[in-house]
Amino acid sequence: MRSIPTGRLYYSISEVSDMIGVKAHVLRYWETQFKMLRPKKGRGGARMYRKRDVESVVRIKQLLYEQGFTIAGARQQLRGESKSDKTQSAIPFPSHSSSEIQHIRQGLREILGLLSTRRTR
Could you tell me the domains of the chain? Predict the structure, then answer.
């Protein structure tokens, strides 16, 4: 498998086929089996794979060919990976002292006061 060339927005199905090492008809079949694999199509119907599509193809190939998953098993694995990617982590807020918070609030009140006087004009 060749590496994904950078600096390009789209790749043809033949380019992806060569990069990944699977036939074009296999890629078309995978499109029917994996919802996340939806390359754009040009006016003539030619598939235009984005980088994330190519990355999905690489992951699907790993699951099917290297790890021995079935199509259904790979689909389930990808769903699980997608859910774990969507989990949110807490954003750490810097700790402020009470006086700093009061100072910020006062500044905000002043801004609101300026804005409200501009509206009435």
Answer: 11-83 (1.10.1660.10)
- E strand or H helix at 47, and its extent? strand 47-49
User: Rounded to an integer, what distance in angstroms lies between the CA atom of residue 12 and that of residue 25?
Assistant: 13
pLDDT digits (tens, 9 = 90+) for 41-62: 988 999 999 999 999 999 999 9
Per-residue model confidence as pLDDT tens digits over 64-101:
999 999 999 999 999 888 776 655 565 666 666 778 88
Buried b or exposed e, range 3-28, using 16+ CB within 10 angstroms: ebeeeeebbebebbbebbebeeebbe
Crossing angle between the packed helical segments 51-61 and 13-20, to the nearest 10 degrees: 40
Residue type, 9: L
